[in-house]
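Before going further, learn to read the protein records used in this course. The integers have meaning only within a learned vocabulary of local backbone shapes. The record below shows the convention in full.
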Amino acid sequence: MVYFLLMISLEDARWSSMTGGYKMPFDPRPLLKKLETDSDTAEVWHELWEELHHQGDVGEASFAAVPFLVDAYRKRGDFDWNTCAIVAIIELARKNGRNPDVPSWIAEDYFQSIEKLAEVATTRVLRAETPEDVRAMLGIIAIAKGLRIHGRFLVDYSEDELIEIESGNWIPNPVTGAKAGPRGGEEKD
């Protein structure tokens, strides 16, 4: 089954001039290659999370990496929450604040990849075993269906945090993550 064709090659010279979440040059190609070949991907994921998204910021490298992240996820066949979560976070950051929109030369692949990831997630979600896997998969499905706020709550908050939010005991500050106190001031732990 052919899911999609990647329009940008890993050999394309544009990779070397892309920026990541720190708004500084970042070339994710070595990490993307490791993601496909390494059996232990924990360190690769740590670096991808560090570089592709930083405090709400993303760059061209973040968008360009998405088709490769999705392709690796599809090929690996694992239930690692990282792919669905990082793609959801990148998409939610798009055009937010100082973030750019997806460059036109990668836009078709980028948006198709989100759709394909949601399709794969629908086939895996009922077999997922951890809450993180389930939330990440449901989050990308929600985002692909246009339910961005639902997707954000699924990827940003745990079940316990959502219970606190629903009960009115916790109003999260999206910038600091601190709980709001009874009069709206931040509580200190």
User: Anything to note?
Assistant: The two ends are 52 Å apart (CA to CA). Confidence is low (pLDDT under 50) at residues 1-5, 181-189. Helices lie at 29-37, 42-52, 60-76, 81-93, 104-124, 131-144, 148-156, 159-167.
